[in-house]
Design goal:
14-stranded antiparallel beta barrel; about 10% helix; globular; mainly beta; about 300 residues
Length: about 300
């Protein structure tokens, strides 16, 4: 029921935004962007994504994407299909955004996120208030006398946070922090994960240990910051991330460096490399490549 309500609310908001855009008089041609990318880690995990974004006016933009990710058997051992959609309106002083993300393994695990933000300009930068509702569903099997039985358990995380970003001609950067509250379903999931007669259970504690799956893990808090240096046709970005796992209380840290280069006025190539370090897991290196096309 909660997932249906979230989807209905998102559809209504997107429809209202589209109606507002269609009421704007015709002006400059719409700007759009297509991108595709792939990411791998050194434990045989991988992901690939395809995304599209269109900006029919200077204020409005719409985005959608699909993807697939697989973590190695030594980590979370999950394979998930993802889709996402978002709408943004950015004015000179105020802005808002609304987005929905879904990631689901065939039978063991799913994560659905409804996120919203309100932003305003502050001294050349932009500060944002963030809110997220994340619903997780876990499937697991226990062994009983003469048979096995399948169970499902869901729980909801609610996150609140702030973000600040600034991008000038040469230098830019951002900082983002969210803190989450969990409902009673998380305690039931943790209890189930410790049953002595488990036949199978998704390794939720390993989701944060790989950059491939860390975005769908349940966390107590998350902090990310980055700095960017732009050049005439290229740019370099350094990103840092810190999270605490809600299931195990393990801390996870990731560091990455990315380099983008404009091959032509329309095509841009970006490479990424980094490492994730999580308590009770070996450090895991990752690398990725993304190609973007803009009209």
């Amino acid at each position: 029921m909660k997932r249906a309500v979230n989807s209905a609310a998102l559809a209504a908001a997107l429809a209202a935004a589209l109606a507002s855009v269609l009421s704007v008089p015709a002006g400059a041609a719409a700007q759009w962007e297509l991108s595709t990318g792939a990411l791998v880690d050194d434990a045989s995990g991988y992901s690939f994504d395809i995304d599209a974004r269109v900006a029919p006016t200077e204020q409005w933009s719409f985005a959608a994407g699909i993807g697939r990710a697989e973590s190695s058997d030594q980590r979370a051992a999950l394979t998930g299909d993802a889709w996402r959609a978002s709408v943004d309106w950015q004015g000179a002083a105020l802005g808002f955004g609304l987005g929905y993300r879904s990631w689901r393994d065939s039978s063991l695990f799913s994560a659905d996120t409804l996120a919203a933000d309100v932003s305003w300009s502050v001294g050349g930068g932009r500060i944002s208030a963030l809110v997220e509702s994340r619903q997780f569903e876990i499937g697991y099997t226990i062994t009983l006398p003469l048979r096995t039985q399948r169970f499902t358990q869901d729980f909801v995380d609610t996150g609140l946070g702030l973000a600040y970003s600034y991008y000038g001609d040469r230098w830019g950067g951002y900082v983002r922090a969210l803190s989450y509250e969990h409902d009673a379903g998380l305690d039931r999931v943790i209890t189930a994960s410790r049953l002595p007669n488990l036949a199978d259970f998704p390794r939720l504690q390993a989701l944060l240990s790989s950059f491939v799956t860390r975005s769908v893990g349940s966390v107590d808090h998350h902090v990310a910051l980055g700095i960017e240096r732009s050049f005439s046709r290229s740019g370099v970005t350094l990103d840092l991330g810190f999270s605490r796992d809600a299931v195990t209380d393990d801390d996870s840290r990731n560091l990455s460096v990315s380099y983008r280069y404009a091959l032509t006025p329309q095509f841009e190539l970006e490479g990424l490399a980094g490492v994730t370090e999580t308590d009770r897991f070996d450090a895991l290196a990752f690398a990725g490549l993304q190609l973007r096309y803009r009209n």
